[in-house]
Write a structure and sequence with these properties.
Layout: H1 2-6, H2 9-13, E1 18-22, E2 28-32, H3 56-67, H4 80-86, H5 89-121
Antiparallel strand pairs: 1-2
Length: 128
């Protein structure tokens, strides 16, 4: 049956769009998937080239996302040790607890994002 399906003209012209689909049995069946409606799967010779910027709104979102993170070279941390040494024990205790609260809260947020990402995003997105 599969040879009969594969011999039709439609499937001969579209072999690169054939993907295996796992059925409920032991055998897998190749089915044709139409990628013409999906922009992420379309052939694009300049897929990994970002300039010239084609979608300015997406580029703006990307730049805002990059700007929301900091890197160690942006902040001078050379005086932090001396500042820490000048604190008394109560101030060190307070700062340590505040920082541990933020670290734990950030971990909880990240766990929630991962659970959302694995359940929602990974099945629907294809990376170029």
């Amino acid at each position: 049956l599969l040879n009969t399906i594969m011999s039709t003209d439609k499937f001969q012209d579209d072999k690169e769009n054939m993907e295996p689909e796992m059925g409920s049995g032991d055998a897998s069946v190749a089915v044709a998937i139409d990628h013409s409606d999906e922009p992420l799967l379309a052939e694009n010779p300049s897929r990994f080239v970002i300039f010239p910027i084609k979608y300015h709104d997406i580029w703006t979102f990307y730049k805002n996302a990059v700007a929301s993170f900091w890197t160690a070279d942006e902040i001078d941390l050379s005086h932090d040790y001396a500042d820490w040494e000048r604190l008394d024990d109560g101030e060190r205790f307070f700062i340590s607890r505040v920082l541990s609260f933020f670290a734990a809260s950030d971990g909880i947020v990240n766990e929630n994002l991962v659970s959302l990402r694995t359940g929602l995003f990974t099945e629907s997105l294809v990376y170029p």
